[in-house]
Amino acid sequence: MRKKHGMKPIKSSDMAIDTAVPPPAAELAGGRRSGMPSIRWTALGLPAAVFLMLVGFSLTSPVFMTAQNMRNVGLQAAALAAVSFGQTFVVLTGGLDLSVGSIVALVSVVTALIGAQYGAVAGIAAGIAVGVAVGVVNGLVVTWFRVFPFIATLAMMSIAAGLALNISGGSALGDLPTSFSDLAIERTAGVPDPLLIAVVLLVLAFLFLRYFRSGRHIYAVGGNLQAASLSGIPVRAVVLLAYVLCAFCASVGSLILTARVASGQPTLGTSLPLQSVAAVVLGGVSLFGGRGSIIGVAFGVTFISILANGLNLLNVSSYTQMMVIGLALIVAVTLDQRIRH
Amino acid sequence: MIRKSALLAIAACVSGALLSSMCGAMAQSNKVGVAMPTVKGPFFTALLYGITDEAKKVGWTPVILDAGGYANVDQQVSDMQNLVAQKVAAILVDPSDEKAFGGALRDAKAAGIPVVGSGDPVKSANASVSASHCNLGIAMAEGAKKLLPKGGTMAALTGPAGAFWSTARWVCFKKVLANSNIKIVAEQSSEPDAAVGLSIATDLLQRFPDVNLLYGADDTVGVGAARAVQAAGRCGKTLVLTAILGETTQELLKAGCINYVVAQQTVLIGRESIRIAKQLAEGKTPNETTVEVPVVAVTPESLASVDVSTIIQPKGWKP
Q1: Residue B12 is nearest to which of A55, A62, A63, comparing CB atoms?
Q2: Chain A interface, best mutation among B20, B38, B40, B106, by max A CB count within 10 A
Q3: Nearest CA to CA, how far is A52 from chain B (Å)?
Q4: Which class for B46: exposed (0-12), middle (13-18), buried (19 or more C-beta within 10 A)?
Q5: pTM for the full model?
Q6: Contact B261, B244 (CB under 8 A)
Q7: Residue A40: what pLDDT?
Q8: Which of A195, A272, A281, B101 could connect to A101 by a Cys-Cys bridge, CB 3.0–4.6 Å?
């Protein structure tokens, strides 16, 4: 432990600076951006893996590389993409949001309930408002009450899931306006609209993280909390913002899924917490925070979606698919650790 | 760096498309798609036995996709869309919630693939083969009255929240008992899992040690309830009523820890689904498009004389 004269002792654990990553101050001054090592992995490793999978599945399944199947993949990936982009904000701060699946369920039932009575626009607005409110609560519990993110969001996962079941009475809510449920089947230039929504979200997230001060602050806080605080960054506000953005993106994912199933489902999105973390980690975002690229996460989503689709077409059982995705996650985290050190 | 990855992705799509066209995109006309919410549990084991055995007889290979649980509605919708992309000859589906399948059914219709609801009625499908869950609930209520002719108290493990079949059974069950002298003191939903059923039933017995009857929506939670009763040494004192006649249920019936089972003829449902799907795939019109398969009440006394070949798969068969 180093000690500077006249100052509070600085523990080495407080200054967990990865020497391969420039400190946040340099980054704010317009220096080299954080996340370069992870970009190397995602620029080559993951796209290469996606390429190999595309070729491999094309060889083994004659229906894989067809327009219909690719539309299916895009449609199925859209909700996961939205949730994963949101998860990225939180993971970049060094946190985790396990409540994203329950947010999806809660937003789904609220959207259906309000939409059935007051129309699609009101339903969407109400759903997003509720989702964002959950994000605010998550952020406040983590920042002001200083509850560890894993615990805070695990608790919220249970609360939001129970709330969704209570509101819906445990049953699916139908009578959604057709203008809303048609969103899932509409296409623009042959591309399913949900996929376009996910792409728009990706572009907005990319621009925010790269060119907006708050976006760079998210990296700074995740990279070195103490240095960020000493630099004058409002750490609590930044972390709160990350959870709010995560919940907003989960709400968008919920709207996509709700449109696809044309009903408010109180148990929607149960697999999304694990899948979104898998996509984020596969995409090269460090679970320790401060490093990673949203483009990498997009590749992570692509990897998972194509893998699941290809294995389905090959009639591989869902149990084996679970094993494969788990294995891919271990490989990705191991590579992430190697790059860090 | 980013440009390299974009080029890689484009190259992958182009080469994949070329390879795919070289391999040929033939219709999978000798395959029948089966989209199930889960393949766990005695009901689905029996259903899949009926489907796979009958499919072999008609020259079809089943492609079975499992969504991994009743909660994964969107996954089951995706599974069905994947089957449409595979251009299977027909699709059998037991939807976790029919409301969610409008889009997938439209896709199948547009592709000319007939869809048969198998295990649950599906109004927008080309045909459905199922037992009526409401009739099942009614039969269970009659069973409850037979088990408690003088009335009593009961607690319920109602099955997965939001699943059509469990809701229909429970609603119709309660309607029949509404004016009876059987009082429902507790009800709890859960995924159809024996371990979860055991845990919930144990807690219910803790709360209501003298409860006369436990209701299990199907025999996954029903078996759990029976095990809890067995562990508490209350077989024959706290009676257990459930649906679906799996292998473990039969054992517990013989042991007296399950007292009344309303069995679906699940193997027969699977077989009929394939027969109707085959007719539809060949462009023929089936005699009936909504087939309701009757249920069978089974007690420890009648078990030996019941023909189980339409109810349950051969011993040891697994999907």
Answers
A1: A55
A2: B20
A3: 8
A4: buried
A5: 0.78
A6: yes
A7: 55
A8: A272
Q: How many Å apart are CA A100 and CA B107, to the nearest integer?
A: 29
Residue B184, helix vs strand vs coil? strand
Does residue A185 belong to the interface with chain B, where contact is any CB pair within 8 Å?
Answer: yes
Cα separation, B96 vs B314, in Å, equals 26
Q: Which of A268, A39, A94 is nearest to B67 (CA)?
A: A268
Whether the complex's predicted ipTM is more than 0.85 is answered with: no
Structure-token pair, residue B270 = 């699977």
Residue ranges of domains in chain A: 33-55+63-340
Residue among A324, A328, A301 at smallest CA distance from A312: A324
Among partner residues A43, A66, A265, which is closest to B73 by beta-carbon distance? Answer: A265
Q: Nearest 5 degrees, angle CA A75-CA A80-CA A82? A: 95
- Which pLDDT band holds residue B98 (cuts at 50, 70, 90)? confident
- Segment holding A275, helix H or strand E: helix A272-282
Helices (H) and strands (E) in chain A, counts: 14, 2
Whether B65 shows a pLDDT value over 60: the answer reads: yes
Query: At which residue do the structure tokens 């959604």 appear?
Result: A176
Pairing of strands B296-298, B260-263: antiparallel
Q: Rounded to an integer, what distance in angstroms lies between the CA atom of residue B75 and that of residue A215?
A: 33
Closest C-alpha among B117, B93, B89 to residue B36: B93
- Residue whose tokens read 């949101």: A86
CB contact (8 A) between residue B99 and residue A263: yes
Q: Given CA atoms A325, A328, A334, A335 in this order, what sign does their dihedral have?
A: negative
Interface test with B, best of A181, A261, A282 (most B CBs within 10 A): A261
- Domains within chain B, CATH numbers bracketed: 26-131+266-293 (3.40.50.2300), 133-263 (3.40.50.2300)
Please state which architecture CATH assigns to domain A33-55+63-340.
Orthogonal Bundle (1.10)
| Residue whose entry in the numeric block shows the structure tokens 């004192």 | B237
Residue in chain A nearest B73 by alpha carbon = A268
How many beta carbons lie within 10 A of that of residue A13, not counting itself? 7
* Total number of residues shown for chain B: 319
- Asked whether the beta carbons of residue A268 and residue B73 sit closer than 8 angstroms, the reply is yes
Strands lying side by side in the sheet with B239-243: B182-189, B152-159, B213-216, B239-243, B260-263, B296-298
Nearest to B258 by CA among B297, B295, B225, B231: B225
The string of DSSP letters for B98-150 reads GGGGHHHHHHHHHTT--EEEESS--TTSSEEEE--HHHHHHHHHHHHHHH-TT
Q: What is the pLDDT of residues A19-78, one digit of tens each?
A: 334 334 333 333 344 444 444 555 567 788 888 889 999 998 888 998 888 988 998 899
